[in-house]
Design brief:
8 strands, about 130 residues, 60s Ribosomal Protein L30, Chain: A, globular, 8-stranded mixed beta sheet, mainly beta, binds zinc ion
Length: about 130
Amino acid sequence: MIFRLKHGEDITGAVIDKCKSKKIESGVVFFIGAVQKAVIGFYNQKSKKYKKMMINKPMEIVSGIGNISLKDGKLFFHAHISLADKNGKLLGGHLFSPTTVFACEAVILKNNTKFIRKFDRKTGLFLWNK
Ligand code: ZN
């Protein structure tokens, strides 16, 4: 399915809402457009914590890609985003909220296999069970 996010909408919230309304528990998500502001993260593999970076300016969404699975019985959207500034310089990382869009087009491809996230001690992340 394809859809357009509303001006000012948070990407993660919008994708989760759309999946709930369409009963999608597993899938692949692609999105492009532009953000008003964004929060991206880098996972520190030693400390096992995300370093968050706030970007408080308009940026192009060069590429957004993610997936939908279940964590603790709830829908979980995991996405990474590449953003370009007015000079074409790229920044990117793990997508966090609030990342609000100026405009954004998204595609969700439903998958019929369920993926469930379980805590992985080695990485400190909730990874798929398959
Ligand atoms: Zn990530």
